[in-house]
Amino acid sequence: MDKILVRSRIAQECARLMVQECIDDYQIAKQKAALRLGVPLKHLPSNNEIEHALLEYQRLFHAETQTQRLHRQRSAALSAMRLFKDFQPRLVGKLVKGTSHEHSDVSLHVFTDTHEEIGWFLLERKIPYELGERYYLNRTLCYPCYRFVASGDQISLTVFPLDKLRQAPPDPVTGKPMQRLDADRVQALLNSVAD
After folding, report:
1. Is the CB of residue 78 less than 8 Å from the CB of residue 190?
2. Comparing C-alpha atoms, which of 169, 174, 156, 170 is closest to residue 73?
3. Domains of the chain and any CATH numbers
4. Distances (CA, A) of 140 to 136, 157, 161, 172, 180
5. What is the rounded distance in angstroms from the CA atom of residue 176 to the CA atom of residue 154?
6. Stretch (H or E) spanning 132
7. pLDDT, tens digit (0-9, with 9 covering 90-100), for 81-100
8. 189 and 74 in contact (C-beta within 8 Å)?
9. Helical ranges in 43-178 per DSSP H
10. In contact, 50 and 29? CB cutoff 8 Å
C-alpha cells in the first residue's frame, strides 16, 4: 500500500479515536490507530496531519454539535478571563484551534511572578481547586497549573512568570510558539461565529 495513503488512513483513524474516545495524546492515538489498522509504526503521520484530519472529522460528523460546544466553551473561557483579568489571561490550545471535545479543558495561560497569588485569588472567592503541573517542550519546561470547575467546564490556569507573556511555549502539534488569544480576540472569535 502507498505510504502516503497509509499515513492518511492512520491520521483519519486517529481523528476518529480522539473524538470518540476523548484521547488528547497524539502518540497514544497514533499507536492505537496503527494497531487497529494493522500497519507498521514506521508510517505514522505527523501531529499536524492528525490535527487536519481531526478538524475534517469534526466538520463532517459533528458540525452542529462542535459549533455549539466551541461557543459554550469559548464563552466559559471569556468569563474566566474576565475574572482573572489582573493576570493578563490568554486562551490557548484546542479552543483556539477549534478541535476541543466534550471533555477538553478550557486552557488559559496567566501571568504573575508569584504563582501562589492565583491560589490566594481562588481561595478568596471560595473556588475549590487542584494544583498540579503542566509540562511543555518534551517535559523540560514545567509550570504550576490550577484546575477548577466553573459552570460545568474544567478550567486550567497555567501560571507563567510575567516575563514569559511575549514568549509562548511550543505548540505540541506544530512546534512553533503557541497561539495565545487575549479576551478581545476571544470576544471577536465568538462574534464572528455568531454572525
Report:
1. yes
2. 156
3. 3-61 (no CATH), 65-194 (3.30.460.10)
4. 6, 19, 16, 13, 20
5. 26
6. strand 130-136
7. 999 999 999 999 999 999 99
8. yes
9. 47-61, 63-83, 94-97, 116-124
10. yes
Residue with cell 486550567: 156
| Alpha carbons 143 and 34: distance in angstroms, whole number | 33
Residues in the chain: 195
**pTM beyond 0.85, yes or no:** yes
Strand order in the sheet with 130-136: 90-91, 106-111, 153-160, 141-150, 130-136
- Residue 170's identity, in one-letter code, is P
Alpha carbon separation from 93 to 46, 105, 170 (Å, rounded):
17, 9, 11
Q: How far apart are CA 91 and CA 109, in angstroms?
A: 7
C-alpha to C-alpha distance for 11 and 6, rounded to whole angstroms: 9
Residues with Cβ < 8 Å from 69, sequence gap 6 or more? 100, 101, 102
Please tell me the distance from the alpha carbon of residue 53 to that of residue 150, in angstroms, as a whole number. 31
Summarize pLDDT for 38-88 with one digit per residue, the tens: 988 888 999 999 999 999 999 999 888 889 999 999 999 999 999 999 999
Q: Which three cell numbers stand for residue 4?
A: 502516503
